């Protein structure tokens, strides 16, 4: 979570609302929590392209399949097929 996207220049009330839930999830997690830190140096983590072939997956209904594909696209997953 990055301040800019919570309550900073790019923040939203929806982002602010999830902070307590995220804090609780981290506090109660039974395991190691990994995180990255944005140092504003211009360095970026390596990216791994993710592709999903729309013709090789299905939802419960055609509508739910389309909804899932749209959600994946919004997460920068490349939908092919």
Protein traits:
two-stranded parallel ribbon, mainly alpha, 81 residues, 41% helix, single chain, extended, 3 helices
Sheet of most strands: 2 strands, parallel
Shape: extended
Mean of pLDDT: 90
Poorly predicted residue ranges: none
Strand order of the largest sheet: 1-2
Structural class by SSE content? mainly alpha
How many DSSP helices?
3
**Gyration radius from CA atoms, angstroms:** 17 Å
Tell me the domain tally. 2
In terms of DSSP E residues, the strand content is 5-15%
Instruction: Give the helices and strands as they follow along the chain.
Output: HHEHE
Q: Kindly state the number of beta strands.
A: 2
* Separation of the first and last Cα atoms: 33 Å
Level of helix content?
A: 40-55%
What does this structure look like?
By secondary structure, this protein is mainly alpha-helical. The protein is built from three helices and two strands. It has helices at residues 3-6, 13-28, 62-74, and strands at residues 51-53, 78-80. It has a two-stranded parallel ribbon with strand order 1-2. α3 links the parallel β1 (51-53) and β2 (78-80).
């Amino acid at each position: 979570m990055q301040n800019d996207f919570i309550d900073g220049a790019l923040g939203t009330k929806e982002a602010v609302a999830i902070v307590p839930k995220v804090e609780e999830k981290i506090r109660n997690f039974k395991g190691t929590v990994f995180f990255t830190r944005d140092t504003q140096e211009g360095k970026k983590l390596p990216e791994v392209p993710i592709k999903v072939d729309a013709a090789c997956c299905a939802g419960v209904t055609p509508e739910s399949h389309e909804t899932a594909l749209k959600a994946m696209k919004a997460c920068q997953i490349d939908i092919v097929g």
